[in-house]
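Schema walk-through. Below, the input block comes first and the output block second. Nothing else is stored per chain. Lengths vary across the set, and this one has 139 residues.
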Amino acid sequence: MAVANTNEHFREIMISREMFLLDINTDKQAARKEGLEKGLEKGLEKGSVAHKTSLNTILRSRFAQVSDATIAALEAINDLDVLQNLVVKAALSDSIDAFEDCLKTAQKSTAKKTPDKIVSEPATEYKAPKKAKATRRKP
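--- output ---
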């Protein structure tokens, strides 16, 4: 009877140990996921700040007058792809008016994107290939 009691006690210890390890593993996974999300947010924020700084520098060095409204509009954009495209447009635009036209277009395109943090969009709509027609062979 002492052996049965010892085995039952050992079984209870092993079960509580497994539960403890499972809890630790779950906590580690949650912490890892939270860390990845925070890291991604921080990276996106740094990229956004870098592009906005580049835009500000390019615009002020190329054009004598940059309106506060233009700077405010740039600050409101947080989409990295849009900001990157605007950096190129700022470098290549002939005038501040031409850049502001590009900025208005960019604002309209970002307003259409309702979900926050869009990672990618499909380039084109998928179309299923046409089935080949069956042909009869001559005997």
